[in-house]
């Protein structure tokens, strides 16, 4: 009898799989299934906790690599070795035991390259060999889809290629991070930077793109421009128009006015009135990036919050797989969406007349669906009661996806565009007006406030009175002065498209569709994590959804300027080659060989590149900010506590005072105010969300206190333990 073991990526995924079958036994590390038609002898589901296995640290290869020295670079292990991640031995050993007992092992991790990496890194670490390995490949956790997936398992040929791609990516990021971070940190510390820099193959060029936008704004010089505007009064009302001239030279515009003998108050004549019916089709279905951009614009959600929220809705089996980069579905998904149309409409309480139930290539194209299809609702239509228990974020995201999907079946948005040409002494003025005929799919998106693009669209058009060709109008014509404006800073949501298109401007859907084929920074699954990483390293700050480069970020960008770490296009080419490995058209050896050459080039060239005066100026700014005293030192009563890299220390440290405070404690950043409160009051306010290292313990709230020995302790609010 064959024993089947299924590895899920995480416990919630394992539970979703087990919900599709009859459960025989539950254990803290596995779920055993009863025999059924799919598994005649039953099966066992176990799980990772994300990555159970990780690359070893440099010091675990060679002790001398444990100390940061320029002479140790480059760090290039002859063979890359892995270890069980800290705190995950118990689950790893449970998986190892089950793998040894298995005849068939099924990879049920997420269906992307990281899912393949998680499975095979665990499998190889167990030392198990010679097992039959199959791959579960599904886009939904609904019972029917799970059962169908296990009935139609894939072989592991594609899976092994994705693992090779992901492992190569993991090693290359390790190499660039370990070598680059040490190189730049040590060289800049020689110049007085009291901080460390984190260098990354993707995070560094991403930060550089943000820095470039900062420079565009900072160096922008406003310039005046001149236009000619006409205010017209017709028999049935007033309207405005503009002449086709926009010039930086005031005299050029004035010459045109003089040429047509325009005094300012002249009689004009309506030269032409044309009307055209315009139709706008509903937006494309959501990929992860478009959903992240939409949610950021509408609710200011960060890309990570959107990904986490869609993942929760996927785990609840009401949305399809989140980490997708396509906006298309196949005819299979279209069929069930069409069949459930009335149920979906009941959920949004809007029974609209369906325009068509035939699949349109705009949305349904199997040739453009590779691993995953667009994010759409699953067959499982939640009840209103289930919707009510969702969080606000989950409801917002679910209905955004649902309405975008339903819009595919709705009518076009229809409006009439009116173009008017008004002649004043031979000078033509153009006017565009818009009259809404049918809201169509737009009725599904009646949000409380219009977004900026809608407001801009309305500003460029106007409601027009009834106008007739040949009609005479009174005109007030004048020259109008305007000023050019700088580019706007990125919002957090715009960073996703900035990365996807390597910083190319994306102003409308048509441009975006063209640029979707361009390889960008990172992947659909990793971009939000990269943004979180550069926030964590304090290279950028997000204030009121606007992204700002920090002084530390400026130092990084000025330091990498001119080499490949600042080149988004080069990093995009690297990502393109990684995909070739996943397709079987590239080799890990070739890619890692190019990374090795790159590291040698960095070590050779960077010392000379860091002599720029602007780098030293920014280091001096950071030093000055970090040396600002927070409070009198409670230990020596002489020095002052200030920021020192990633922690707080006394200015008398060199003279023997060893008082320090951590910059981070149990996953919470400790702020300057909290350190000041500790020094002056002996206690902070309640800090929410401390996260213990022990996995079975929940987050807790506490006040930090300064104990008699001047170390930090916890004091718990009474209400936290009032009820059991």
Q: How does this structure look, described?
A:
The chain is α+β, with helices and mostly antiparallel strands. The chain folds into 5 domains: 4-52 and 88-155, Rossmann fold (3-Layer(aba) Sandwich), CATH 3.40.50; 172-219 and 491-614, Orthogonal Bundle (Topoisomerase I, domain 2); 224-281 and 413-483, Topoisomerase I, domain 3 (Distorted Sandwich), CATH 2.70.20.10; 288-407, Topoisomerase I, domain 4 (Orthogonal Bundle), CATH 1.10.290; 628-721, no CATH class. 37% of the residues lie in helices and 20% in strands. It contains 22 helices and 25 strands. The protein has a 6-stranded mixed sheet with strand order 2-3-4-1-7-8. A 6-stranded antiparallel β-barrel has the order 9-10-13-12-11-14. A hairpin with a 2-residue loop joins β18 and β19. α3 (113-126) packs across α5 (157-189). It is globular and about 90 Å long. Residues 720-724 have low confidence and may be disordered.
Corresponding CATH architecture of the largest domain: Orthogonal Bundle
Distance between the termini: 48 Å
Largest sheet: 6 strands, mixed
Outline, from the CA principal axes?
globular
Radius of gyration: 31 Å
Give the secondary structure arrangement, pairings included.
Layout lengths: L3 E5 L2 H8 L4 E4 L3 E4 L9 E5 L5 E3 L26 E3 L4 H13 L2 E5 L4 H14 L5 E4 L7 H9 L5 H33 L13 H16 L5 E11 L2 E11 L2 H10 L5 E16 L7 H12 L3 H13 L15 H9 L1 H8 L35 H5 L3 H16 L5 E12 L2 E12 L13 H9 L11 E12 L8 H9 L8 H7 L11 H10 L3 E4 L2 E4 L1 H10 L7 H15 L5 H22 L3 H14 L4 E2 L7 E5 L2 E4 L9 E3 L1 E2 L2 E2 L2 H9 L6 E4 L9 E7 L5 E4 L9
Parallel strand pairs: 1-4, 1-7, 7-8
Antiparallel strand pairs: 2-3, 3-4, 5-6, 9-10, 9-14, 10-13, 11-12, 11-14, 12-13, 15-16, 17-18, 18-19, 19-20, 21-22, 23-24, 24-25
Helix pairs in contact: 2-3, 3-5, 5-19, 5-20, 6-17, 6-18, 8-9, 8-15, 9-13, 11-13, 18-21
């Amino acid at each position: 009898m064959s024993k089947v073991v299924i590895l899920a990526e995480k416990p919630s995924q394992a539970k979703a799989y087990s919900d599709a079958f009859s459960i025989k036994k539950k254990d803290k590390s596995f779920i055993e299934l009863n025999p059924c038609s799919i598994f005649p002898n039953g099966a066992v589901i176990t799980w990772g906790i994300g990555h159970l296995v990780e690359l070893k640290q440099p010091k675990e290869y060679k002790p001398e690599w444990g100390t940061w020295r320029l002479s140790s670079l480059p760090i290039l292990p002859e063979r890359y070795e892995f270890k069980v991640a800290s705190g995950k031995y118990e689950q790893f050993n449970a998986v190892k035991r089950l793998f040894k007992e298995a005849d068939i092992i099924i990879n049920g991790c997420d269906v992307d390259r990281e899912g393949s990496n998680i499975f095979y890194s665990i499998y190889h670490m167990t030392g198990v060999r010679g097992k039959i390995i199959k791959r579960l490949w599904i886009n939904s956790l609904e019972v029917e889809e799970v059962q169908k997936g296990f009935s139609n398992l894939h072989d592991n040929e594609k899976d092994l290629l994705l693992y090779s791609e992901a492992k190569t990516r993991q090693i290359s990021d390790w190499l660039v991070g370990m070598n680059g971070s040490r190189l730049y940190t040590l060289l800049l510390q020689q110049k007085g930077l009291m901080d460390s820099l984190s260098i990354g193959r993707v995070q560094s060029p991403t930060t550089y793109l943000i820095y470039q936008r900062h420079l565009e704004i900072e160096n922008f010089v406003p310039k005046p421009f001149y236009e000619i505007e006409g205010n017209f009064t017709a028999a049935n009302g007033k309207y405005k128009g503009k002449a086709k001239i926009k010039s930086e030279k005031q005299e050029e515009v004035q010459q045109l006015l003089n040429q047509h003998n325009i005094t300012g108050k002249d009689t004009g004549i309506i030269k032409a009135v044309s009307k055209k019916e315009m139709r706008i089709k509903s937006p494309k279905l959501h990929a992860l990036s478009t959903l992240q951009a939409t949610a950021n614009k509408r609710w200011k959600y960060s890309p990570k919050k959107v990904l986490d929220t869609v993942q929760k809705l996927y785990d609840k089996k009401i949305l399809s797989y989140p980490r997708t980069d396509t906006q298309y579905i196949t005819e299979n998904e279209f069929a069930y969406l069409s069949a459930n149309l009335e149920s979906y409409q009941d959920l949004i309480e809007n029974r609209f007349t369906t325009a068509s139930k035939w699949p349109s290539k705009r949305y349904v194209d199997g040739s453009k669906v590779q691993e995953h299809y667009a994010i759409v609702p699953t067959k499982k239509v939640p009840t209103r009661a289930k919707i009510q228990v969702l969080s606000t974020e989950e409801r917002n995201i679910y209905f955004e996806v649902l309405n975008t999907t339903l819009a595919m079946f709705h009518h076009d948005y229809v409006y009439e565009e009116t173009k008017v040409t008004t002649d004043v002494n031979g000078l033509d003025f153009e006017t565009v007006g818009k009259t809404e005929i049918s809201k169509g799919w737009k009725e599904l998106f009646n949000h409380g406030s219009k977004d900026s693009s809608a407001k801009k669209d309305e500003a460029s058009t106007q409601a027009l009175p009834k106008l007739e060709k040949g009609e005479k109008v009174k005109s007030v014509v004048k020259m109008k002065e305007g000023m050019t404006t700088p580019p706007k800073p990125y919002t957090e949501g715009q960073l996703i498209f900035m990365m996807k298109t390597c910083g190319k401007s994306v102003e409308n859907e048509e441009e975006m569709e063209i640029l979707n084929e361009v390889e960008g920074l990172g992947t659909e699954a990793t971009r939000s994590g990269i943004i979180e990483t550069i926030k964590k390293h304090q290279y950028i700050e997000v204030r009121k959804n606007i992204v700002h480069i920090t002084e530390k970020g400026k130092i990084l960008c000025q330091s990498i300027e001119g080499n490949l770490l600042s080149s988004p296009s080069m990093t995009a080419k690297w990502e393109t080659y990684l995909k070739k490995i996943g397709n079987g058209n590239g080799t890990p050896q070739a890619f890692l060989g190019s990374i090795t050459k790159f590291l040698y080039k960095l070590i050779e060239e960077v010392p000379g590149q860091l002599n720029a005066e602007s780098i030293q100026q920014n280091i001096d700014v950071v030093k000055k900010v970090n040396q600002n005293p927070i409070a009198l030192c409670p230990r020596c009563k002489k020095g002052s506590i200030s920021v020192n890299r990633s922690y707080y220390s006394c200015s008398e440290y060199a003279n023997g005072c060893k008082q320090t405070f951590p910059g981070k404690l149990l996953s919470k950043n400790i702020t300057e105010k909290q350190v000041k409160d500790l020094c002056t009051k002996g206690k902070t306010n309640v800090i929410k969300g401390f996260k213990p290292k022990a996995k079975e313990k929940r987050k807790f709230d506490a006040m930090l206190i300064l104990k008699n020995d001047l170390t930090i302790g916890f004091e718990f609010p009474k209400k936290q333990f009032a009820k059991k």
